[in-house]
Amino acid sequence: MSIKPPSPAPQNIAWVPLMLAALVLTTGCRGTAPETERAARADLATVKNNFRPNDVRPALPMLASNAPFSNFLAFAMLNQPRVEATWYDWAASVESITGQRSLPDPQITFEADIANMVTSLMPGLMETFPGPGKLRAAGDAAAADSRVKYFAFESSVLQSAFDLKSSYYDLYFLDAKIQINRQTLALLADIEKLARSQNEVGKATLQDVLRAQIEQDRTANDITNLEDSRRSLMARFKAALGITADQSDPPVPQNFESTPLDLTSDDVFIDALARNPRLRGMEAEIRSAEAAMRVAYKERMPDTTAGLEADVKAAPVFYRPQLAVTLPIWRDKLAADLAAAQDRKRAAEARLSAEQIALAVDFAEKSFAFRESSRNLDVFQNQLLPKAQLSLQVARSAYLSGQQEFVNLIDAERALLDIQLSEVEARVQREQALAEISLLILGQSPPNAPILNNTASAKTIGTR
Question: What is the CATH number of the domain that holds 25?
Fold first, then answer.
């Protein structure tokens, strides 16, 4: 009677679950995204369509001297490297949500008993399962951090728009000052001719001619200094557009566009508190700290590691299940982690309160600067300039008739020049205050700004 050898079927069957596990590992798995992650990715996709579609910079608007200023603003917001850096910081923080809410990678294990020969061969698979609610809390904390990064991105977009406006206003009004001084230089040339004609008929001395020449030399030197300062202002303008120093100078818009803003409403400051990106970013920091507190609290829950090994050398095959549970016994460590998260929340709340106070001060100062410069501009344009022009005409006529000395004519010319330059300076201060209030304090985005603004996603991102 013959004895049949053991059937190899059990050994083959033992490899089946391991082969299936290997197949799953090589093909990959996908987790289930929670609502916070789906919302964050939706916000990212919304902005990406405008800012970096297909991960490349979109076609930039054409810059021309007769182009609307909105073209220059869009160019700066899309091309500024600082904005791009905060964009990728935000994008990276959104991508990190998936890693935080996902299970750890499973492990393939392998054991063998070897004496003179291999007596057992045990491949296996193990997986660690964090305690209940840990992964969700970690994902929510990462989503909260991504909201902080978003508001940093929004702030950088608005800052780039302000930097462009600020540099453009300085450049535009520098050109206005140069133009005023050139007109004054032409006026002084006429006054010199007038002094020479009076000197030729014996009604004035050569000293009047020399005084006119001195004023011309002084004005010509002012023009040279102003033209020389244009280089530094053009460098600022290029930098605000994100154009490097080795690239050619861009054109400067010819048509001046003021910032439309109504500061008469009593609700303006309330709007600032609701929309200011710095405040909203700090509110997001508080939500992030609260999420970190939940993560720290969940650390009290133990983690479980489960696995299964099969001895494929045994006949029949036997399986070895494994189970391990962490013991969160270091209560001082858990308490310290929770206390640290609570302290971070308190610090974020204090920073928010300080920023709200600082915002109120900034709003008051810039509003005063706007009102003051608006009053000064009205006085210069409607009262002082007409009177200064009339005073110069009177002084000119009186000098020709011999009723006044030449010094009175020069004084009238200087007064007109000072008022004209002061009028330009008042316009600069008014527009700078308007730009800072609208962009950095009120958080009003320019047209086509690549941010979440006045959309359902934007309203949600500040309150999730």
Answer: 1.20.1600.10
Farthest CA pair distance, the chain? 155
Q: Which amino acid is at 105?
A: D
Crossing angle for the helix pair 81-101 and 35-51, to the nearest 10 degrees: 160
Number of H helices, E strands in the chain: 12, 4
- Specify the pLDDT at position 28: 58
In a domain, 25, yes or no: yes
Q: How many CA atoms lie within 13 A of 425 on its CB side?
A: 8
Q: Who contacts 305 (Cβ-Cβ below 8 Å, separation ≥6)?
A: 126, 127, 128, 129, 322, 323, 324, 325
Torsion from C-alpha of 100, 101, 104, 106, nearest 10 degrees: -140
7 within some domain: no
pLDDT for res 31 = 74
Please give the pLDDT value at position 26: 53
**Domain with 445 in it:** 14-461
CA atoms within 13 A on the CB side of 78: 25
Residue 1 belongs to some domain of the structure:
no
Q: What are 204-229's pLDDT values in tens digits? A: 888 999 999 999 999 999 999 999 99
Which of 310, 383, 451, 433 lies closest to 10 in space, CA to CA?
Answer: 310
Task: Confirm whether 126 is domain-assigned.
Answer: yes
Positions in the chain whose pLDDT score sits under 50: 1-11, 454-464
What pLDDT sits at residue 114? Answer: 84
The CA distance from 305 to 374, in Å, is 71
- What is the CB neighbour count within 10 angstroms for residue 433? 23
Main-chain phi, psi angles of 449, to 5 degrees: -70, 135
The predicted-structure confidence for 116-150, as pLDDT tens digits, reads as follows 888 888 888 899 999 999 999 999 999 999 999 99
- The domain total for the chain is 1
Q: Which amino acid is at 279?
A: L
